[in-house]
């Protein structure tokens, strides 16, 4: 496809079903999930800002994580909702590029923010006496900014390489959003260079965040077992369990999607696997953090009490 024709090109999404009744059901379901997710994350951000007992590095990261999750789910879900009610499930060439860029930016940033949260828990448990020195406000801000910068680099490299390919054949994306592999599958040119660059530059960055998270928790578990009493073990694990659950929900399905042979892409199962880390995970995360966290529950009760008195 010539460069000049790209402004008129569009991609067509192959949605979950062509049965109108199911489309309406899915629209209602995903709309409810989206509204609950946005409201829950916004609630956590408000609770953090209004509760002095939560002004610690752990909850500073959590508030930023909630903001990131809101951006993340808003990149994909509104477009998916629109297409579920539309007979022409399309997106422009540049609209698709913007969606992929935003998705990669937020997803890659989330990888490193999860690693930063694991590093925070590592210092809290393994170096409690130096915790306030190591995890100063300045250090926390640097970790968050670094996470965004790495996410920005991954998004720019991968989006530029993908949309520099030549597209001249079929324009139907076997997915519900603009992901890397479904778009590359439509290219008329060889994508081997893109795959090599992804393997050498992008993949190590994302996998590196996962390894940093694993190393942090390996050290945490070793320290808990070696030095803590039975009561200390219970308390230490209670502060880490929520984060481990979130990491598992995010990395589990994502690993299935991206760390497998190219020949296995393109099945309908891919859409449902993608739903786990693009729609379901952002719904579950705020409840995992709040329902399992006594500090958050105390802050919520105190805030509700103050509102009632007011």
Secondary structure layout:
Elements: E1 10-13, H1 20-50, H2 57-84, E2 90-92, H3 93-126, H4 131-134, H5 137-163, E3 172-173, H6 180-184, H7 192-227, H8 230-258, H9 268-291, H10 294-309
Parallel strand pairs: 1-3
Antiparallel strand pairs: 1-2
Helix pairs in contact: 1-2, 1-9, 1-10, 2-3, 2-9, 3-5, 3-7, 3-8, 5-7, 7-8, 8-9
Give a structural overview:
This protein is an all-alpha fold and 310 residues long. It has one domain: Rhopdopsin 7-helix transmembrane proteins (Up-down Bundle), CATH 1.20.1070. The chain has 10 helices and 3 strands; from the N terminus they run E-H-H-E-H-H-H-E-H-H-H-H-H. It has helices at residues 20-50, 57-84, 93-126, 131-134, 137-163, 180-184, 192-227, 230-258, 268-291, 294-309, and strands spanning 10-13, 90-92, 172-173. Strands 2-1-3 form a 3-stranded mixed beta sheet. The chain is globular. It starts with 9 loop residues before the first strand and ends with a helix. The model has no long low-confidence stretch (mean pLDDT 85).
Kindly summarize this structure in a few lines.
This protein is mostly helical. The protein has helices at residues 20-50, 57-84, 93-126, 131-134, 137-163, 180-184, 192-227, 230-258, 268-291, 294-309, and strands spanning 10-13, 90-92, 172-173.
Please tell me how large the radius of gyration is. Answer: 21 Å
* Average pLDDT for all residues: 85
Going by CATH, what is the homologous superfamily? Rhodopsin 7-helix transmembrane proteins
Number of domains in the coordinates? 1
What kind of assembly state do the chains in view correspond to?
single chain
Task: Please identify, by name, the CATH architecture.
Answer: Up-down Bundle
Q: Shape from CA axes? A: globular
Q: Which stretches of 5+ consecutive residues score pLDDT under 50? A: none
Total helical elements: 10
What would the CATH topology be? Rhopdopsin 7-helix transmembrane proteins
- Secondary-structure-derived class: mainly alpha
**CATH domain class:** Mainly Alpha
- Strand-residue fraction? under 5%
Summarize the biggest pleated sheet.
Answer: 3 strands, mixed
Spatial arrangement of strands, main beta sheet: 2-1-3
Overall strand count: 3
Q: What is the N-to-C succession of helices and strands?
A: EHHEHHHEHHHHH
Distance between the termini: 64 Å
């Amino acid at each position: 496809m010539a460069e000049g024709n790209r402004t008129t090109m569009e991609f067509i999404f192959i949605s979950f079903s062509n049965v109108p009744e199911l489309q309406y059901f899915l629209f209602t379901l995903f709309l409810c999930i989206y509204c609950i997710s946005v409201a829950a994350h916004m609630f956590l951000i408000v609770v953090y800002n209004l509760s002095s007992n939560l002004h610690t590095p752990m909850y500073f990261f959590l508030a930023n994580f909630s903001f990131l999750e809101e951006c993340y789910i808003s990149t994909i879900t509104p477009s998916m909702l629109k297409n579920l009610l539309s007979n022409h499930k399309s997106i422009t060439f540049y609209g698709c590029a913007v969606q992929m860029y935003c998705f990669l930016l937020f997803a890659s940033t989330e990888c490193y923010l999860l690693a930063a949260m694991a590093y925070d828990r590592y210092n809290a448990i393994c170096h409690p006496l130096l915790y306030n020195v190591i995890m100063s406000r300045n250090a926390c801000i640097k970790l968050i900014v670094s996470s965004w910068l790495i996410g920005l680099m991954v998004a720019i490299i991968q989006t530029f390489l993908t949309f520099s390919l030549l597209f001249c054949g079929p324009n139907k994306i076997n997915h519900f959003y603009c992901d890397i592999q479904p778009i590359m599958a439509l290219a008329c040119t060889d994508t081997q260079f893109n795959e090599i660059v992804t393997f050498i530059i992008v993949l190590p960055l994302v996998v590196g965040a996962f390894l940093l998270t694993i190393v942090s928790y390996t050290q945490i578990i070793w320290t808990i077992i070696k030095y803590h009493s039975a009561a200390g073990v219970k308390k230490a694990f209670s502060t880490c369990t929520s984060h481990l659950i979130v990491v598992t929900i995010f990395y589990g399905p994502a690993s299935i999607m991206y760390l497998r042979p190219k020949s296995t892409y393109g099945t309908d199962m891919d859409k449902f696997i993608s739903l786990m880390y693009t729609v379901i995970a952002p719904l579950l995360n705020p409840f995992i953090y709040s329902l399992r966290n006594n500090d958050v529950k105390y802050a919520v009760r105190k805030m509700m009490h103050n509102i009632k008195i007011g």
